[in-house]
Structures are given as structure tokens and as C-alpha cells.
């Protein structure tokens, strides 16, 4: 997995891969006007977008380990906002909680300078179908 | 909960309690700056308890390069902002608040090239919490792209 695999939305927002952690890509985005919500704070939609990309990246990595090529189709996402994000680099990592043959449940956390204090959490359900 | 906020105030200089003119504010500050400005969010329509913003399709917002389908991040931002504005159409004044949670169910993919409209509705206000729901659609509200539900918390002052 490298940055070039990330979709246009991720690239436009400046989302890139920081490192791999037990096979899960840790993504980051630097602070810019593009992710600004209310003055001085990160927009919740940008946090959500970063976590969504982290969920998809984690699931793609899991599919690669299984040697499967699957089309991923988001069914739903639930986001919990816990702290305001400030003007600094933001990270997110997805964890595949369960991936069966047809559907996967992926959790993600989003943090800034202190990983022990996540600013938001997300949970996504994603349908899996064999790629043509 | 901390003083989290994902919702931009329409104008940083606005004091809490300022009389809220949704259309004017949405056409102004909110849709030109920051994340919503980058997304290109714009005013569409509003009424008491509901508010619509539009999100024009563009290449940069695509989540799957091969299909041209919009990423869900922009849809979440659209719905966060539209539902946030819908709260203020009920209070009639600007009350700073933070998004507590948001759930999005995707009914179908957004059609490449089509503008998405986000319709937010506030269906219950308490002193500190507002409960919202909404849909994202392109042409026909009865064939939505997504349904959302969530809540906001007033961070400075109260809704009622």
C-alpha cells in the first residue's frame, strides 16, 4: 500500500500514509484551510473523511493478506466526536474487527498529538463483493 | 464531552444569540472559507426546522477513482453542515454547538457529475441537545443517496 493507491479525495485533502502498524496503515493529514471548521478547529467532516480512508485502507490491507481482490462498498458509518481538533497534524488508523466473506466491520480512531486521547472514533460497515 | 466542534460557526465574530438569518449566512462566510469552502458547499433552500445545502460534484472529491463516485467524507461534511444550520432555523438565533455524533446510511452511490443536495432537519430541541436527521439526494428526495441521524450539544448557552 502506498499513497498512490489513495483516491482523489484523499490526495486532494493531503491525506498520506505515515507508517504501517501490524499491517494497518496509519494515515495522516496536515492542518490547512481545506480542513478548517470553525476558526482554529478541524472540521468534523474532515476527521470523518480521514477515518473513512483509514477504514478502507485497513480493509484493503486485510484483503491483500488473504490474497483476495474485493470491491468495497460502504453500507454505513457512525462517527463519535469527542474532542475539538486543533491546528496540527491529525492521524487515523482503522482496525478490521470482523471481515467475513460478504461484509466487514471496521473501527477507526482519530488523534492528534496524544494518541491516548482520540478526538473521534468511527465504525464502518462495508460490503464485500468479488471484483470482476 | 469536551468543547469539540466540527461545525463551523457561520461567522467567527457573531456573538451567541445573534439573530439568525440562515440564507444570508450560508451564502456568505460559511460557504467560502475552510473545509466547506473547499468542498464548494452552497445555500439551496430552507424553512422552519430544515435547511438545504448543495455540494457540486467535482473530480477532487471522488472516493473511487475508477467509478467517479463521491467519497463519503464530503457527504458527511455536507450533512454535518446542513443539519447544523437546521438547528438554528428553529432557535432563530446562533447558538454555538458541537457535533456529538453522526450516523450515515448509504442507500446508493452518488451519480458522477451530479450535484448532491443535503437536507438537514432538526426534529427535537432540548436545552442542551439538538436531535437531527436528514437525507442527501441528487434529483429526487424520494430516492436518497444517504440517510443521516445525529445530535449536537450547545457549548455556550442553551438552545431554549
Overview of the structural elements:
The complex is a heterodimer of chains A (132) and B (160). With 132 residues, chain A is α+β, with helices and mostly antiparallel strands. Chain A is built from 2 helices and 6 strands, in the order H-E-E-H-E-E-E-E. Chain A has a 6-stranded antiparallel beta sheet, covered by helices on one side. The longest helix of chain A has 23 residues, at 44-66. In chain A, 43% of the residues are buried. The model of chain A has no long low-confidence stretch (mean pLDDT 94). With 160 residues, chain B is of the alpha+beta class. Chain B has one domain (22-154): Hotdog Thioesterase (Thiol Ester Dehydrase, Chain A, Roll), CATH 3.10.129. Chain B is built from 3 helices and 8 strands; from the N terminus they run ααββββαββββ. In chain B, the strands form 2 sheets. Chain B has a 6-stranded antiparallel beta sheet. A two-stranded antiparallel ribbon of chain B has the order 3-4. Mean pLDDT of chain B is 87; it is low at 1-9. The interface between A and B is large, with 38 and 43 residues.
Order of SSEs of chain B, N→C?
A: HHEEEEHEEEE
Question: Which architecture name of chain B does CATH use?
Answer: Roll
* Spatial order of strands in the largest sheet of chain B: 1-2-6-7-8-5
N-to-C terminal Cα separation of chain B, in Å?
20 Å
Concise account of the structure shown:
With 132 residues, chain A is of the alpha+beta class. Chain A has 2 helices and 6 strands.
